[in-house]
């Protein structure tokens, strides 16, 4: 394979990866899978399978009566790391009649099928032109005026803002902006920006956003009020090899982590359900 072009090498790697994906998740693979997806010849498909076996033969057995290669219990992946999202996309592809459909998808699909179902939540939207101006202002380090629909006020006055960054808090996108009127850094939800335009005059250079630039290590452990078995279940669910899990997060985003986990946070409240975790410590990154 050393004389192949980069494009051919990439295609060959994709075919080898597909073989491994199908062996891992479905448990078997045939030449026809490669032929159907990649449109290659039967000879090329046979060659790809043989090449894969040279790289990863352990646990793979050819069943003459079924005319397919099957993975045994000792089979392990060497060409990629399996993921849950990969399994979901494979199941979606099975429903569509194509076992390898969207194999390289990195996120869970949004549609449902008989094999997979996904809760669809109301989608937050944002004014594209407003966001465009905001992003340009971030890149240019300029000032904008935003007509903002606040849930705490019935007015939609223009606010002079200096955007610094945008961030995803787990449920929505917001802009991290310096607010000259209040002389502090604040978060403004993108979906509530009715209008964003260039300011007539640039605001003074804002001070450093210390909370954005500072990272903290949030250490969590299973809630002490949970039973021993419940704690063990939480540790398994989150892949915890120790009693404590560490999350590296910007100080400006800690409140959102706490909020999403149902933990108490400054100027906020705890969720109505008993949280799975409790905070061990929250310290500035060394």
How is this structure best described in words?
The structure is a single chain. By secondary structure, this protein is of the alpha+beta class. The protein folds into three domains: 6-82, Arc Repressor Mutant, subunit A (Orthogonal Bundle); 128-208, Roll (SH3 type barrels); 214-284, no CATH class. The chain has eight helices and eleven strands. The strands form three sheets. Strands 7-6-5-4-8 form a five-stranded antiparallel β-sheet, covered by helices on one side. Strands 1-3-2 form a three-stranded antiparallel β-sheet. Helix 2 (31-38) packs across helix 3. The chain starts with 5 loop residues before the first helix and ends with a strand. Residues 95-109 have low confidence and may be disordered.
Spatial strand order of the main sheet = 7-6-5-4-8
Rg result: 26 Å
CATH topology of the largest domain: SH3 type barrels
Dominant shape: extended
Secondary-structure-derived class: alpha+beta
> What integer is the average pLDDT?
87
CATH architectural arrangement of the largest domain: Roll
Number of helices: 8
Overall tally of structural domains? 3
How many β-strand runs?
11
Measure the end-to-end span.
47 Å
């Amino acid at each position: 394979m050393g004389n192949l072009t980069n494009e051919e090498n990439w295609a060959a790697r994709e075919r080898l990866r597909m073989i491994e994906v199908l062996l891992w998740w479905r448990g078997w693979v045939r030449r026809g899978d490669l032929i159907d997806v990649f449109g290659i010849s039967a000879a090329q498909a046979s060659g790809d399978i043989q090449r894969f076996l040279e790289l990863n033969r352990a646990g793979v057995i050819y069943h003459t009566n079924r005319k397919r290669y099957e993975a045994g219990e000792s089979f392990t992946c060497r060409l990629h790391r399996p993921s849950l999202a990969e399994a979901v996309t494979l199941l979606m592809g099975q429903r569509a009649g194509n076992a390898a459909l969207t194999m390289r998808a990195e996120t869970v699909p949004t549609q449902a099928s008989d094999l997979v179902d996904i809760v669809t939540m109301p989608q937050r939207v944002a004014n594209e032109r407003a966001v465009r101006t905001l992003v340009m202002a971030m890149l240019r380090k300029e000032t904008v005026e935003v007509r903002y629909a606040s849930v705490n006020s019935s007015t939609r006055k223009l606010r002079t803002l200096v955007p610094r960054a945008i961030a995803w808090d787990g449920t929505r996108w917001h802009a991290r902006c310096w607010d000259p009127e209040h002389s502090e850094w604040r978060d403004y939800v993108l979906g509530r920006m009715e209008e964003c335009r260039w300011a007539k005059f640039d605001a003074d250079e804002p001070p450093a956003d210390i909370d954005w630039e500072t990272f903290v290590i949030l250490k969590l452990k299973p809630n002490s009020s949970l039973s021993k078995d419940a704690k063990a279940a939480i540790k398994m669910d989150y892949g915890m090899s120790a009693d404590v899990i560490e999350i590296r997060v910007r100080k400006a985003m800690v409140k959102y982590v706490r909020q999403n986990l149902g933990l108490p946070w400054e100027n906020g409240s705890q969720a109505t359900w008993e949280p799975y975790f409790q905070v061990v410590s929250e310290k500035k990154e060394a």
